């Protein structure tokens, strides 16, 4: 697992570093999407999570959900287009799950992706993400995740 400035980035995931989003391929061909520890550390404690509804389409590069913290409100952008297959209802009820367990219970949505092979080629594998994230953090002036787990 990569650890960049205290931010953990599991090797088995794929990353959209620019948008601080991770992707996990599922056995059924769908992809699970979530926010990285970098995203949750930058945003602070999440207070609201509003996903697109099941069945709704998501355009590549557009929002699959809106997340809100005490200091930020914005889109969770998906590099992959497709339709929402499932939303994390536990996260709707307790948005702070994304801060507490961003790679487990804090996932955002499951997407039935379109053209996944092409999108996957644009994502960074976890085993290769450290240098890219170090450069992004330096460019953004982000010190790191502190004691993030």
Largest sheet: 7 strands, antiparallel
The tally of structural domains comes to 1
List unreliable stretches of 5+ residues. Answer: none
CATH superfamily: RNA polymerase II/Efflux pump adaptor protein, barrel-sandwich hybrid domain
According to CATH, the fold-level topology is OB fold (Dihydrolipoamide Acetyltransferase, E2P)
Overall average residue pLDDT: 94
Number of strands: 12
Our Rg estimate from Cα atoms comes to 14 Å
Strand content: 35-45%
Q: What general outline do the C-alpha atoms trace?
A: globular
Q: What is the CA–CA distance across the termini?
A: 12 Å
Run of helices and strands: EEEEEHEEEEEHHEHEH
**Helical residues, percent:** 10-25%
The top-level CATH class is: Mainly Beta
State the CATH architecture: Beta Barrel
Order of strands across the main sheet: 7-10-11-5-4-3-12
Explained architecture:
The chain has 149 residues and is α+β, with helices and mostly antiparallel strands. It has one domain (2-115): Beta Barrel (OB fold (Dihydrolipoamide Acetyltransferase, E2P)). The chain has 5 helices and 12 strands. The chain has helices spanning 37-43, 89-93, 97-100, 116-120, 129-140, and strands spanning 2-4, 7-9, 14-16, 21-25, 31-35, 46-51, 57-58, 62-69, 73-78, 82-87, 109-113, 124-125. The strands form 3 sheets. Strands 7-10-11-5-4-3-12 form a 7-stranded antiparallel sheet. A hairpin with a 3-residue loop joins strand 8 and strand 9 (73-78). The longest helix is centred in the C-terminal third of the chain and has 12 residues, at 129-140. The radius of gyration is 14 Å and the shape is globular. The relative contact order is 0.27. The model has no long low-confidence stretch (mean pLDDT 94).
């Amino acid at each position: 697992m990569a650890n960049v400035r205290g931010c953990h980035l599991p090797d088995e995931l794929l990353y959209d570093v620019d948008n601080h989003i991770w992707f996990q391929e599922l056995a059924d061909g769908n992809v699970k999407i979530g926010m990285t520890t970098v995203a949750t550390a930058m945003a602070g404690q999440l207070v609201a999570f509003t996903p697109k509804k099941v069945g709704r389409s998501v355009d590549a590069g557009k929002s699959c959900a809106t997340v809100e913290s005490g200091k930020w409100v914005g889109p969770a952008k998906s590099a992959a287009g497709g339709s929402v297959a499932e939303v994390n209802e536990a996260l709707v009820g307790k948005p702070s799950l994304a801060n507490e367990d961003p790679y487990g219970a804090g996932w955002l949505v499951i997407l039935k992706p379109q053209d996944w092979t092409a999108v996957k080629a644009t994502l960074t594998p976890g085993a290769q993400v450290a240098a890219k994230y170090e450069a992004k953090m330096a460019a953004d002036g982000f010190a790191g995740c502190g004691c993030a787990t």
